[in-house]
Amino acid sequence: MTSGLVVLAGATEREDEAPSLHLSRWFANHAIACLFLSAQTLEVLDANAAAIRLVDASDELALSGGKLVVRGKAAAEQFRRFVYALDAAPKIHMVGDHHKPLLMRVERVDETDVIAVQLFPITQDQDQGLWANMGVIFGLTPAEDRLIKLLIGGANIKTLSEDLGISVETARTHVRRSYLKIGVSNREQLFAAVAPYRLKG
Question: 88, 122, 156: which is the final residue of a domain?
Answer without folding.
Answer: 122
